[in-house]
TrEMBL record:
Transmembrane segments: none annotated. Residues 89-98 have a biased composition (Polar residues). SMART domains: WRKY. It comes from the Eukaryota. PANTHER family: WRKY TRANSCRIPTION FACTOR 19-RELATED, WRKY TRANSCRIPTION FACTOR 30-RELATED-RELATED. Residues 69-110 are annotated as: Disordered. Keywords: DNA-binding, Nucleus, Transcription, Transcription regulation. This is WRKY domain-containing protein. Belongs to the WRKY group III family. Residues 77-88 have a biased composition (Basic and acidic residues).
Length: 368
DNA sequence: TGCATTTGACCGAA
DNA sequence: TTCGGTCAAATGCA
């Protein structure tokens, strides 16, 4: 408490170290994935994503240095208090909410369970829908969150008791952009339910029984389903993650990937085609930045960003977990972090009823 | 009747 | 002490 300034300086130094590590790891990530990937287009994509990630981390490091330089002794050390803030505050008017979100992302985490965050947008801010990610969820709670305009919904897998499935998710609408939802997934699905291809509107008829292809990766399933129309994919810079909501309303917005944990051993060789497919479509265990993917929202796909926080055993070290935390903050604090530069895509589908993201998306998405 | 949602209470980490 | 996360009884709906 009393050596707040020193602690702050220490935390900045730690942050700088972590960001530097992150830059290096981003490079390694790009190289690793490119090396592992037989498809040159995907390799190039990963390299590009890694480069953007590296760039963003570099910016974050620069920002941290600026904060450190601007507040040498500093009152920011007590920024949990009422002391005036500076530096990143200039980037937007949502600092209070941002800090709350940062705290929220820190609190009450179940240690040892993989946790990752999806941020996605819907085309219509008036939309009152719950995300349909292809799994069955049961809402078990709702909580007003301090500093948040909207309550947070708590969901667990429908088969929690029947099949001891520990998967849970939290859904919260963004304060600053009503079109944006933050979904935090925690735990792997241990149940046997197959991730179904989701439909844009829940009122539509349910998907057909799982065909053989659903024994493979969900994204492979999706590729095998009624995919009749040509896709148009817009990439970085064409549609900002935080801007330009589309207009098509939707009763629900599916994003079938996040519920499949990102911890397939992507680097492990396997003779099992299904496992191979899953591995190929999953980020490596060392990646906390799975490639962003499009999200189908009633026919349109919207950029999405994920953060993954894996158990220590799956990570490269303690600092990796901390780095994941940094990126979590980057994602949950858009006002203070240019997360849109991490990954960026948008795709649009000609078929407004197309029930799936065109590329499967992470953790399994070859989106090229 | 069974399942899902709502909501107030409780627990526990920070 | 605060507040996010979970529990479980009450309620709603098909």
């Amino acid at each position: 408490m009393q050596d707040g300034a020193g602690a702050e300086a220490g935390s900045i130094q730690t942050l700088l170290t972590l960001l530097a590590d992150g830059e290096e790891q981003a490079l390694q990530l790009g190289d690793m994935m490119a090396a592992d990937d037989p498809w040159s287009s995907r390799a190039e994509h990963y390299r590009g994503a890694a480069r953007r990630l590296q760039c963003t981390l570099g910016k974050a490091a620069a920002a941290a240095r600026a904060i450190e330089a601007a507040a040498p002794g500093s009152s920011r050390a007590t920024d949990r208090s009422d002391s005036p803030r500076s530096a990143d505050e200039s980037s937007g008017g949502t600092t209070v909410a941002t800090e709350v979100q940062e705290r929220q992302s820190m609190c009450k985490r179940r240690k040892g369970l993989p946790r990752w965050t999806a941020k996605f947008r819907v085309p219509d801010a008036s939309l009152e829908a719950t995300p349909d990610d292809g799994f069955s969820w049961r809402k078990y709670g709702q909580k007003d969150i301090l500093g948040a305009k909207f309550p947070r919904g708590y969901y667990r897998c429908t088969y929690r008791t029947a099949q001891a499935c520990a998967a849970t998710k939290q859904v919260q609408r963004s304060d600053t952009d009503l079109c944006v939802f933050d979904v935090t997934y925690q735990g792997e699905h241990a149940c046997h339910q197959k991730q179904r291809a989701t439909v844009a509107a829940k009122s539509q008829s349910p998907p057909p029984p799982a065909p053989l292809e659903q024994q493979l990766d969900p994204s492979m399933q999706l590729l095998g389903m009624g995919f009749k129309r040509v896709l148009k994919v817009e990439t970085a810079g064409l549609h900002d993650h935080d801007h330009g909501p589309a207009s098509a309303p939707a009763a629900s917005f599916p994003f079938p990937f996040p519920s499949v944990p990102p911890f397939h051993q992507a680097g492990e060789a396997t003779d099992n085609p299904a496992a191979a497919a899953a591995a190929a479509f999953s980020p490596p265990a060392s990646s906390y930045f799975p490639p962003q993917h499009p999200v189908v929202v009633d026919g349109s796909c919207y950029a999405d960003i994920y953060d993954y926080e894996a158990p220590g055993a799956r990570m490269r070290g303690a600092e990796s977990s901390e780095l994941g935390e940094v990126v979590t903050r980057a994602i949950t604090a858009p006002a203070a972090f240019d997360y849109s530069s991490l990954f960026h895509h948008q795709a649009e589908l000609d078929d407004p009823h197309l029930p799936f993201p065109p590329f499967g998306g992470p953790p399994h998405g070859p989106y090229q």
